[in-house]
Amino acid sequence: MHGVGGLLRDWRQRRRLSQLELSVEAEVSTRHLSFVETGRSKPSRELLLHLAEHLEVPLRERNGLLVAAGYAPVYRETRLDDEAMRPVREALETILAGHEPYPAVIVDAHWNLVAANATLAVLLAGVSPPLLEPPVNALRVSLHPDGMAPRIENLREWSAHLLERLHRQVVVSADPALVALRDELLVYPGVVEGPAPADDPAAMLFVPLRLRPLGEGGETLSFFSTVATFGTALDITLAELSIESFFPADQRTAEALRAR
């Protein structure tokens, strides 16, 4: 089991920083940083938080560093249904409702669905009911053969895009649950990791999600998405929420959604 010095060293190496680079960036002497990492010196709580900020350590793991050093955690984790979270819930509901008639979802750090607007039903049409039983995992629903995958025309391209996003999270957080999720997704049929060739990469502005219609008739719907987070969150729950908003990638999709 790593002490706090070993944990700090792991985070520094994960960010591909040398001791000298981190010491210059954080304005801490290289000698003192070396002593902290080897356990020869116990860091103060303030120094730990200072280094964690420069290493972009997630809030949950910052608490872990503090506990490993013998300090109490400083970042709280408030349930979203707590009364203190009422303003946040109202803001999230406003964001979701305001994005209609286009789909929008809110997920936690493990891609579990927290909330969504009504238009999400357009994306989930045809998904097997067991996949929609809580906790609903957005990546599993997207790429599972009983989920959205059979409707995704560009499954290789879209799955490579999602796996790249997930890989970045794994690198940043070192979360074993995300590693397990990535390993699970990679065994699904048609799912690929790494760049997937597009028809005309030079002409693309973004990676689209192209969904076939259910049954006979209808036209393919095409979307792109944006992701927003709470950049100044000091609560773990808020820091781990992501809002993904889908927009029509062509006029035909926009008209189809507005006509619903």
Short description:
This protein has 260 residues and is of the alpha+beta class. It has helices at 4-14, 19-26, 30-38, 45-54, 59-68, 86-98, 120-124, 138-143, 155-173, 176-185, 236-239, 251-258; strands at residues 104-107, 113-116, 209-211, 221-229, 242-248.
Question: Any overview of this molecule?
Answer:
With 260 residues, the protein is an alpha+beta fold. Helix content is 43%, strand content 10%. Strands 2-1-5-4-3 form a five-stranded antiparallel sheet. A hairpin with a 5-residue loop joins strand 1 and strand 2. It starts with a helix and ends with a helix.
How are the secondary structure elements laid out?
Blueprint: H1 4-14, H2 19-26, H3 30-38, H4 45-54, H5 59-68, H6 86-98, E1 104-107, E2 113-116, H7 120-124, H8 138-143, H9 155-173, H10 176-185, E3 209-211, E4 221-229, H11 236-239, E5 242-248, H12 251-258
Antiparallel strand pairs: 1-2, 1-5, 3-4, 4-5
List keywords for this structure.
single chain; elongated; 5-stranded antiparallel β-sheet
Neighbour order of strands in the largest sheet:
2-1-5-4-3
Summarize the amount of helix as a percent range: 40-55%
Structural class: alpha+beta
- The number of E-state strands comes to 5
Shape: elongated
SSE string, helix = H, strand = E?
A: HHHHHHEEHHHHEEHEH
Radius of gyration: 21 Å
Uncertain segments of ≥5 residues (pLDDT<50)? Answer: none
Strand content: 5-15%
- Ends apart, CA distance between termini: 56 Å
**Count the helices. How many?**
12
Largest sheet: 5 strands, antiparallel
Mean pLDDT: 92
